[in-house]
Structures are given as structure tokens and as C-alpha cells.
Amino acid sequence: MHGGHGRLSIWFFIGLLLTVYGVLILGSGLYELWVPPAHPAVLANLHAGIWWGAILLIIGLIYFIRFYPRKQ
Amino acid sequence: MPSALALLFLQTSEKILSLSPVDLLVIALYFVVVLGIGFYLKRYTKTGEDFFLAGRDMSSWVAGLSFVAANLGALELMGWAASAYQYGILAAHWYWIGAIPAMLFLGIVMMPFYYISRTHSVPGYLKLRFGEPARALSAISFGFMTVLMSGINMYSMALVMEIILGWDIHFSIWVSSITVAVYVFLGGLLSAIFNEVLQFFLIWLGALVVSILGLIEAGGWNGMVHRIAERWPGQDYTHMWKDLGSFASNPMGINWLGIVLGLGFVISFGYWTTDFLVVQRVLSAKDLRSAEMAPVIGAAFKMAVPLIVILPGLLGLAVLPEHLVGEAQAGHGLHSYNEVLPLMLARYCGPGLLGLGITALIAGFMSGMAGNVSAFATVWTYDIYRALIRRDADDQHYVSVGRWCTVLGVLVSIGTAYLVMQFASIMDYVQALFSFFIAPLFGTVILGMLWKRATPAAGFWGLLVGTFSSIGMWAWVKLDPGALRYIALSPHAKDMAENMYRALWSWVICVVVTVAVSMATRPKPDHELVGLVYGATKMPYEASVPLIHRPAFWAIVVALVLVIVNLIFA
Question: How big is the CA angle at B107 (ends B94 and B284), to the nearest 5 degrees?
Fold first, then answer.
């Protein structure tokens, strides 16, 4: 899916960055499960990094796949 | 480069946050992507229309999100979270009555004239409607205001990075401004818009997590209200209208009339309908209906922004163990109001999430800066350089001038950032700027669009006298603080109220002068006003368009939601 004039869509770039951020934040949250930090944040027991990273990853993948450049 | 890296990690002992390697990676990736977008889009910005108006092929969603994101700068994120901590939910007036009606008015009433006239800019519209003198005056004042605003954005960001991360203030100013200069230089408005939409997502995703976790900790909205009442007895932070009966009954020192007329009418309409920084984003829309729809979409998202700006400030009142103070008292272990958002980030965000939150702040700062710089380049190139210096060059020459104006704008902004360091209160300074230029400009544009009788001479003199009257009132209060009782109608009025009323009076003066001069001078014939003025322009007929695709229908929906949220939080 392209934007105007055959260029990549802005939604593709958003999907790409959110996917990478999702992987990084989800990975970081999972790592904290194994190695709990010395000074945890408030509500660290909710593991916000895991579910927020997962949300970013899902949103990012949706946009990335939907707007991935394909030959017309 | 090694010296730059050394500056980056030059950290002070009082910093609020410490970043982990994954946080730094998140921030670094953001810079890589925004610069990458700039390099990628350079090949698509060959003509003036591409560079200055993004090829006029943006969808209503892209134009609408960019319209809001260009305004989500430093002052929005940090300043209004701080204001929410200081003044409570009163600060949300700047998002609701102080934005939504004006955005809807832009989309439904004013956009057809901007779009049909095919102008490149707001000063360009004034040229078509009132002639060269009005354009020159508004272009020069806009250029002046824009680089000041850009400098404020840069300084704010650098100050925040110094306070919360310990980064050197000069390093932050130069790195962020060079990044913005590179991607706007390469891709013009197209690149700025792409990055603004990306930044919009990052701002939301980086800041919303703070509000969600804050509400969980506080026990929901009711729990938060209960905690605030317990911790701050005798003060009302959670009602928007109840305490606006008089100047003395609320911490902002303003009354309902100042909010409704000064903020909700003059300042808000002036900013959202005539500030070219935001209007330029809508002019990039691919057709008239998209251009009308973009501000309506923007208004819907703008109404939700308090969730990530005002709510964290209120949650700070409820959950932060320390009491924040004004800038003058901050230091030595005391944090200022302006630090409430970083403190909330530090409270809830672990590695990765913290990097996302900081990236959201940086994205906000950079979108504001890019908005100013791209608008400055357009106005300088089309309304000053082409109009007053070189009229007959080819399109490529003006694109080249636009690119170098971007660099010039950034350099002047950097100089401004260093000047702004001398001012104690950035927010008041910006409000003063708005009322100097924006309020009278709104008077001139709205009369030009809606009143055929307004004459070219009247447009110029109304704008000039309105602007000077605003500067005069500001100087009067500076020299004699007792003058406040005349400007703001009460000796109890505070800075915010003074700014609101000064804007209101300067608008009234502009309108009175414009009407008076119009009655004494000859108007343009009707055929010269086609496409520029209501009554002389055939408006597009939408009878065959389904209701769900009509901008006016969605504007009514957004207006109804605005009324409902104001009633809920009254």
C-alpha cells in the first residue's frame, strides 16, 4: 500500500517504529520478570512494560502489515 | 563526535531520571527514523507545491493529525501538565472552550475561503483580500512571532532535558534543532507532516501509560478527587466553571467572561484560524472536503489531549509525596510545577517505557519546532522574499530559498532560545505574544472573509492599530501595574486574565478601526472578491453527499461532546 505519488505511506513508518518499540519494551518488561530491578517503579507488580509493549507490538504489526509496500 | 557524546552524558546530581541502555536505544531509534523520513521524502519534494504545501495531496486524517500535532509542542506537554498541577482542571479550558469551537469554525466556515482562493499562506490570503500592505505587515509579524515561538520550544526542551536527565542544555538545543533543520530542509512540509503524525502517535503512547497507571494508583477518578480534597483542603482543583464567578475565587485570577470571550473567542479563534503554523497543515489537504474535515478530526483528538496532559497534572496533586512549587522557589530538593510530568514518568515507568516517555517529550518538542520552521520558510519565501525582494524567479529558485530559509529559521530560533533564557515565565511570555499579533489578525481575517464592505486600506490600518494597541497595553501594565484594573477590569486579575483581556481589547480596536476606515474608503468591486468573501463566493453544494461524509455533521457531533464534557466537569 502506497501513499500519494507512489511513495511509502506514513502509516507504514508508524507501524515499523511501533513494532520495533513493542519488541524492545516487551523484551525489557520480560527481562524485569527474571531480574527484578533494585529500585522498582510504583505499581511495578502490574508489569506495565509487558502489556504496554505488547499493545505497541500489536498496533505496530497491524499498521506495518496493512501498509507494507507491495507491487501493484 | 566524542565531545558531543561526552556532553550527552554530562549529568548533574539533581537529575530526576536515569536512563537505561534500552531507553537510550528507544530515543536513538526515534532520531534515526525521523531523519530517515526526511532523506526518503527529499525525492518527492521537487516543486514549490511539494515543498511548501506537501503536494496538496494529504488525506483528511493525515492533515487533521498533523494539525493537532504541530500544536503539541513543548508548552502543551510540560506547560499544561504544570498548569493542571498549579490551577487544577481549570487548565482544561485551553483544550476545550479554548480550542474546539475555533477549530470547528475553521473547518466549516473559514476553510472554504482559504482553500478555494488557492493561497499558499494566511498572509497570502490577506494579499488577495486586502492587498500588499496588509500581507507585508502580517508576514513580518508572523515571521517574528514564529522564530520566537521556535526558540521557546527549543529552550523549553533543553531545560527539561537538563533538569530531568542532566543533559547539557546547549547540547540539547543544537542536536534537536539540527535534526529538525535536516528533515525539514530535505522534505519541506511533507517531511514535517509525516514526522508530526508519527510524533502524534508517540506522544499518545508515551504519555497515556502515565495516566492509566496514575488512575489505578489513585483509585480511579473518584479516588483521585477524594485524595486531592484530602491533601489540599479548602482548594477546588476539580471543577471547571464553579469558581469562575469572580477574579478572586479561583487560583488563576480570571472570571468566566475572560475565559469565554478572551480565551474562547479571541485568543482561541485567533490562534486556530489564522496562525499559519496550524492552518498550513490543513491547506495541504487533497480537496476541499478533506480540508474542511481535517480541523474537525483535529478537534476530536484535541478534546482528548487533556487525558495525557491535564490528567497527569491532577494525578500529581493526588499521588506525588512532595508538594511542587513555583520556579522561583525550586531547587535544593524542591521540584517545580514544570517537573510534574517527568516526575510522574519516573514514578511509573521502568526501562523501555521510560525511554518511550522521554521520546514522547522530545517528539512533542520537535513537532512544535518543525511546525514553526516550516511555516516560517513558507511565509518568508512567498510573502516576504517573492513579494518584496524578487518577484520573477522560477519555481526551483523559490524551493531553494525555502530550503535555506529553513536553516536560517533554525539559526535565528537558536539565537532566540538563548535570549529566552532570561525570561522567568515562558508561558506568560507566549500569551503576551499571542495577544500582540494573533488577536488583531483574527479581527482582520474574519472581517475580510465575512464582510464584503471591508476595504484594502481598512484591512491594513485595522491590523496595524490593533497590534500596536496590544503592545501599548502590555507596556502600560509593565510600567504601571495599577493599570491592570483598567485592562482586565479588576485589580485582582492575574497574568492570565491580563492576557485574555488585552487580546479582547486589541481585537475590538482592530474591528472598530477596520469598520470605521471601511466606511470612509472605497471597497473592492464584487468580481474581485470571488473566492475570498462570503456572499461573493459560490459555496460547494453538498446535498448529494451522505450525512456521514459531511464535515458539518461531524462538527455538530464534536460540539455536542464538548458541551457534555463541560457539563460533566462543571
Answer: 105
Burial class (CB in 10 A: 0-12, 13-18, 19+), B280: buried
CB contact B387 to A (< 8 Å): no
Question: What is d(CA B158, CA B164) in angstroms, rounded to the nearest whole number?
Answer: 10
pLDDT confidence bin for B386, thresholds 50/70/90: very high
Asked if residue B247 lies in contact with residue B497, where contact means CB atoms within 8 angstroms, the answer is: yes
* Residue B347 touches chain A, beta carbons under 8 Å: yes
What is the mean predicted confidence (pLDDT) over B420-438?
A: 65
For an interface test with B, the pick among A8, A12, A17, A47 (most B C-beta atoms closer than 10 Å) comes out as A17
B183 shares contact with chain A (CB less than 8 Å): no
From chain A, pick out residues whose CB is under 8 angstroms from the CB of B30: 17
Whether the Cβ atoms of residue B509 and residue B444 lie closer than 8 Å to each other: no
Q: Dmax over Cα atoms in chain A, in whole Å? A: 53
* Separation of alpha carbons B84 and B312, rounded Å: 8
Q: Do A43 and B213 touch (CB under 8 A)?
A: yes
Report the complex ipTM: 0.93
Whole-number Å distance between alpha carbons of B57 and B46:
14
Would you state the cell numbers that stand for residue B343, as one nine-digit string? 516526575
- Residue B7: is its pLDDT beyond 50? no
Ordered alpha helix ranges (H), B480-494 = 484-487
Asked if A43 and B44 come within 8 Å (Cβ–Cβ), the reply is no
Q: Which CATH superfamily, name and number, covers B44-424? A: Sodium/glucose cotransporter (1.20.1730.10)
The answer to whether A43 faces chain B, any CB pair under 8 Å, is yes
* Residue appearing with cell numbers 491533601: B231
pLDDT in tens, B16-60: 778 899 999 999 999 999 999 999 999 999 899 999 999 899 999
| 3-state secondary structure (DSSP) of residue B58 | strand
Closest Cα in chain A, distance from residue B193 (Å): 9
Cβ within 8 Å, pair B25-A4: no
CA dihedral B396, B398, B400, B405 (to 10 degrees): -170
CA distance B338 to B325: 9
In contact, B357 and B345? CB cutoff 8 Å: yes
